Amino acid sequence: MNVHKASLRFSILDAFFFSVMVGAGETYLPAYALSTGMSEWLTGYFATVPLIAGALIQMISPLGISLVGSVRRWVVGASALQAMAFLPLIYFSFQPTDNFLWLFATVAVYWGAGFAVLPTWNYWMGYLVPGHMATDFFARRQRALQVGVVLGLLSGGIALRLQAPVGPFTSAFSIVFLIAFLARVASTYALWLKQDFGASKGLESIRQEIRQLKTLWKISDLKSFFYLLFVFYIALYISGPFVAPYFLERLQISYEEFMWAQGAFFMAKILMMPWAARIVNRFGERKVFLIAALGISPLPAGWLLFNDMWFVVSLQIVSGIFWGLFEVCLVLLFFNRIQLKDKIPMLTWFNLVSAIAMIIGSLVGGQILAQYQASRDGYHLIFVLAAISRTLVVLVYIGSIWRLRRQRLARAR
Q: Where are the domains of the chain?
């Protein structure tokens, strides 16, 4: 088998097992936090505040790669550390702690290791995936990701539903986190099997990264796109981290119903993936990205109309369709529009800025929720605020694009 083609197949395998970890572990973290007695607004912070640790740790990626001597060693090492982060969670599910700092610290390690992988992994894939294969390959990879998430979600939901002990694992959440741990170990092994290359000249020091970023920042289109993403992520996370607490605490849905609601979201994304590549190839990733962002924007307001589980599932399906398009387009925009040598600095700083935006958004939503004592009115307020702010951000960005085009046409004449 050709080594290059084998690496792409192992990348699909890595995506599948990684997403099983996300479905079985990451998706149920808010439910676990609530089960420990954490308040609803603090549970929202639990989903976002530890991200800053990840965003800062990834800044040392270039230094780490130069120390270990290869891209593969760095990615595999960080992935293994992310898997190990589930071990304390398994322990705490047996021996609950009322010191939530331990839980925040554990999740910070999880996100730190995960973020350390991201920019280097993107650089690695830029080396392995030819440009003409990018759209089809990443659409296939996204499908593997979504299938894995659904299987992880189902396995975690069944474990919570049955509450059945498996050997020494007598706590339902310990089984959920064990599944996530084993899936990340399998993902790490798949990464190890991929083709490696050394720490090449393209991997810059942190100081050189900053210089590169300043040069890239002079590109006006790129700068305006990053402004859009920063503000849009703030708007996304005003309500995003609080949907799970709203489901489980305000709507009082069971773990099984929570599983079906989340499963509907991910299944819609899976079914959208084959169409996403065709739509992007026909209309272009920038245009489709904006349509997807506009489709995502008003959806939080839909929770005000809740009347039964069928409504929840329907809204989750619509959300999954637009999110599937959004994620494929975002990957392609980074992959196709940023040169290989610029991927690590650009994605490193993007991850940092997006993590800051997520935290700002969640702090805004959390403060509102705390002021309203996590009442239904408080939830409704953050959902409406998120819907309005998301929509305005996208419309303002579209308006700025039209103005720039008119200015360029006027100059051309």
A: 3-412
C-alpha 399/C-alpha 393 separation (Å) is: 10
Q: Treating both helix axes as pointing N-terminal to C-terminal, what angle do 206-216 and 343-371 enclose, rounded to 10 degrees?
A: 80
Nearest residue to 324 (alpha-carbon basis) of 291, 362, 281, 355: 291
Cβ contact 17:190 at 8 Å: yes
Rounded Cα distance, 386 and 384, in Å: 5
Cβ neighbourhood burial of 376 (10 Å; 0-12, 13-18, 19+): middle
CA dist., res. 302 & res. 287, Å (int):
25
Residues 268 and 395 sit within 8 Å (Cβ to Cβ): no
Supply the DSSP symbol for 171.
S
d(CA 188, CA 16): 11
Q: Is 169 helix (H, G, I), strand (E, B) or coil?
A: strand
Cα-Cα-Cα-Cα dihedral sign, residues 100, 106, 112, 117: negative
Please work out, in degrees rounded to the nearest 5, the angle formed at the alpha carbon of residue 219 by the alpha carbons of 216 and 225. Answer: 95
Q: What are phi and psi of 8, to 5 degrees?
A: -65, -35
Indicate the burial class of 215 (C-beta count within 10 angstroms; 0-12, 13-18, 19 or more): exposed
Q: Which DSSP category does 60 fall into?
A: G
pLDDT at 182: 95
pLDDT for res 57? 76
Distance of CA 346 to the CA centre of its chain: 17
* Residue 25: closest CA among 124, 136, 105, 106: 106
Number of residues that this document lists for the chain: 413
Please give the structure tokens belonging to residue 159: 């474990």
Alpha-carbon distance 85 to 116, whole Å? Answer: 14
- Partner residues linked to 166 by β-bridges: 169
Secondary-structure class of domain 3-412 per CATH: mainly alpha
Average pLDDT of adjacent 10-residue blocks, the chain of 413 residues: 71 91 88 86 82 75 73 88 93 81 89 82 74 70 83 86 58 86 94 72 49 54 76 92 88 85 86 80 84 93 83 91 87 68 69 86 91 89 95 87 65 60
DSSP 8-state assignment for residue 118: H
Say what the pLDDT of residue 201 is. 45
